[in-house]
Amino acid sequence: MQDNRKTRYTRTVLGQALMEALRDKPMARVTVTELCRRADLSRGTFYLHYDSPADVLDDLEDRLLTSFIEPWQDRAEIGDQDFLLAVLHRLATDPDVAALVLQPNSTLVERFFAWRRQATRDACQAQYPDLDEAQLDYVRTFNEQGAIHLIARWVSLGMPEPAEQIAALLTRLT
Length: 174
Description:
- The protein is an all-alpha fold.
- It has helices at about 5-25, 30-40, 45-50, 55-70, 80-95, 95-100, 110-115, 115-125, 135-155, 165-174.
- It has 2 domains: about 5-55, Arc Repressor Mutant, subunit A (Orthogonal Bundle), CATH 1.10.10.60; about 75-174, no CATH class.
């Protein structure tokens, strides 16, 4: 996909239109026509950039993930609680990102964790030095998926506890 000013504009307004639509309905019911109406773009313009509303979701998640991890790229020794707290604060302060997490086909939180997968694996290896690679992968998967579902549950309940409390709980559990 080109990255010129018009393309960035189109991607931005379609992403905003998708977020607006997701406030009213689940992703499965969002249509190209609706996104084009909300973004004030033609269907032809939509299809120059995307094949479906799901592609808009994927692109939006890509851009959100990139904006999130860029400030962390040079920090090789990010503590797990620091990372978790950053993810949770982002969810707590950005209702659109929180709404994405609740979508059935969203992989945003999973992708946050995938970015930290090697560090998570290393932590599991340090905690369980007697396990082989396959067993370590099971432990990492268990920890990662448990954290993902705990975060999704926290968001679905309206984030009643402070992010710091959830980050401390996740750090303790994983």
